[in-house]
Write a structure and sequence with these properties.
This protein has 10 helices and 14 strands. By secondary structure, the protein is α/β, with parallel strands linked by helices. The two termini are about 35 Å apart.
């Protein structure tokens, strides 16, 4: 299915997407297919069209792209889809795109979204989100979107969260609005604290979690991290680790993770917002995290090692 731009009218919502990778490509393509959304991609290299592959059929959209922050103007919504360690580099875009009426949806891993973005966004409202869908960048102008659970996003059940749900109304995305966003954020962090490091360090897709020895290791890592989450105020279940591992095993065995794809591409790994966040929270609450700290050491060594920038061959 191919969709073009219709005539722009005053009722169209202006949306800027920063970062057109696996997550950003999906969230740029689906709203761009709606006539009432005016979507612009903030990218390093020009792009004219974007294809999003879905189980129900691919969509192809024309996509306006900006490569120079000086060309940007304030918009209604900014969707920030870069990795967390790339946030400072987006400052020139955020300064131009964010006005007093702008909402900034943060489609990044980790916790503490609002605090992390506060220095960059002026008077704009920060809207933390939790991304559940699985995206894969197949090329500069093509991404694959796969559902990875009952919902594609979670947001707080407040005016900003409801506005984000309205922004995606008409797409196929399913949004969970929750009065306990903190617990959901920690739950996603816990899932990421095993899915990303294990796939990146073993260079295997999610089939690796079918191994019994890997399952046992993941449960131990999760138990340690869940105790930190409870100390931080998350209302996690007593059997949270078992539930999260069971959830992970429902994902397609051939699905990758963002950290896995980053290692294949020789890019820096998004360590500090995931395993680093668990260890940092443990330090704040004066709790020991030997397993997560060991993972953190291995991930930092892998990301900083001499082989970085020379992608390994995928198994």
């Amino acid at each position: 299915m191919s969709l073009g731009d219709s005539a722009q009218g005053p009722e169209r919502t202006r949306v800027a997407v920063i970062g057109l990778g696996s997550i950003g490509g999906v969230i740029a393509g689906l709203p761009a297919a709606l006539e009432r959304r005016d979507v612009v991609a903030c990218v390093r290299r020009p792009i004219e069209r974007l294809t999003v592959e879905r189980s129900e059929g691919a969509i192809e959209v024309r996509l306006r792209a900006l490569t120079d922050p000086a060309e940007a103007k304030p918009v209604d919504w900014v969707l920030l889809c870069t990795k967390t360690h790339e946030t400072p580099s987006t400052a020139p875009w955020l300064q131009r795109l964010c006005g007093a009426q702008t909402r900034l949806a943060v489609l990044q891993n980790g916790i503490g979204h609002a605090d992390r973005l506060a220095p960059f966004v002026g008077q704009a409202s920060v809207v933390p989100t939790i991304v559940y869908y699985n995206g894969e960048r197949l090329g500069p102008d093509r991404v694959r979107y796969r559902r990875a659970g009952e919902h594609d996003f979670a947001v707080a059940d407040d005016p900003d969260g409801r506005a984000f749900a309205n922004l995606l109304d008409g797409t196929s995305m399913r949004i969970l609005r929750s009065p306990d966003f903190k617990t959901l954020a920690w739950r996603k962090l816990l899932l990421n604290s095993i899915a990303n490091p294990i796939t990146a360090l073993t260079l295997q897709r999610q089939a690796v979690f079918r191994r019994q020895d890997v399952k046992a290791l993941c449960l131990a890592i999760l138990d340690e991290a869940a105790a930190i989450g409870r100390a931080d105020g998350a209302r996690l279940h007593a059997d949270e680790s078992e539930q999260l591992l069971a959830t992970l095993l429902t994902y397609p065995p051939d699905a990758g993770t963002s950290m896995y794809f980053d290692r294949l591409a020789g890019r820096p790994l998004e360590i500090e917002a995931l395993t680093g966040a668990v260890v940092a929270a443990g330090e704040r609450h004066r709790m020991q995290t030997p397993l997560n700290r060991a993972l953190l050491t291995l991930l930092r060594a892998t990301s900083d090692g001499p082989g970085r920038g020379k992608p390994p061959s995928e198994p």
